[in-house]
């Protein structure tokens, strides 16, 4: 690898890290509301977070589109919607639910801190939490961990690059939700791998976004039922 290529990858890594920080900005808005009574500000919080999320999605999506126009050897982009690919998404969803069942019923893992925090947020500001987790989080995370990541670091039409993109994007997705090497990390990484496989196979981000929305919707319903 030449020095120029190394510098290029380093610059992309820096940009990618900045995108991750940008993605987390809407969560900071809640800090401007009084913590003791934040449940009274659910609707305003949802409104301001939505505005900021839309702006961030627009920015990252424009970067993604610019990437594809500049270099797109794997033919990623918007393609004609196919029923068989939607069916594949639904089958993958069922598989992910089976994985959930295995982790919940057969593997003794404690509730991760990330999940406890999520459940507390749902309890305090349910409207903002549902909008964020079911709509905006799937779109942002797929744009970043699949769309941007694949084209930034694995932009060659090679099988090894596609496999590498799937493995690393899934692992990175796992670390974004759980920073220790544990069964909890593996749980999130598996979700990331499933989403990455869907994107790699369909070459259309809308399918992985759909799968991610469905996954989060099921998780959201489960949280509310558990109350």
TrEMBL record:
GO BP terms in the entry: CAAX-box protein maturation; proteolysis
Domain of life, source organism: Bacteria
Any GO molecular function: endopeptidase activity
CAAX prenyl protease 2/Lysostaphin resistance protein A-like domain ranges (all copies): 125-218
InterPro entries: CAAX_protease, Rce1/LyrA-like_dom
Keywords, sorted A to Z: Hydrolase, Membrane, Metalloprotease, Protease, Transmembrane, Transmembrane helix
Family to which this protein belongs: Belongs to the UPF0177 family.
This protein's name: CPBP family intramembrane metalloprotease
Species of origin: Vagococcus silagei
Taxonomic lineage from the root: Bacteria, Bacillati, Bacillota, Bacilli, Lactobacillales
